[in-house]
Amino acid sequence: MSTTPLSVAVIGAGMAGTTHANAWRQVGTVFDLGLPPVRLHTIADAYLPFAEDAAQRYGYERAVDDWRVVAEDPDIDIVSIVVGNALHREIAEALIRAGKHVLCEKPLAD
Ligand SMILES: NC(=O)c1ccc[n+]([C@@H]2O[C@H](COP(=O)([O-])OP(=O)(O)OC[C@H]3O[C@@H](n4cnc5c(N)ncnc54)[C@H](O)[C@@H]3O)[C@@H](O)[C@H]2O)c1
Fold first, then answer.
1. Ligand 1 pocket by C-beta < 6 Å: which residues?
2. What pLDDT band is residue 72 in, cutting at 50, 70 and 90?
3. Which domains does the chain have, with CATH numbers?
4. Using CB atoms within 10 A of its CB, is residue 80 exposed (0-12), middle (13-18) or buried (19+)?
């Protein structure tokens, strides 16, 4: 089992985004798969107070107001996309181009 942490970010800190933020804290307790530790890295929301509140509430290191900061950060491995449906495609494509693993909320695109 790797002991190198995987760094996670969540884009969108609304109703479903905060659920993702909380779920990432517990992923290692749900599946007995020998997962590496998870580093709770960044929450991004266009409305910064939402990102800050979620980061503080769920123990993430950083809050930002632009998802591009997540795409450009080489330290981030995995990203939950939890914004409105019309934004999914642009963000998912940029993250994949940047080499991130992506978990995108449904629907994947309009
Ligand atoms: N799987 C499920 O059961 C389930 C349930 C609810 C919602 N969803 C999905 O989750 C997604 C989000 O839904 P929600 O109910 O949390 O919406 P929401 O409106 O509560 O939250 C969306 C958040 O995205 C932020 N945002 C808007 N534009 C942004 C941008 N350009 N960059 C960063 N952040 C931005 C908003 O400020 C808001 O905080 C949708 O795709 C929805 O279909 C899935």
1. 11-17, 44-47, 50, 67, 82-85, 87, 105-106
2. very high
3. 10-30+37-104 (3.40.50.720)
4. buried
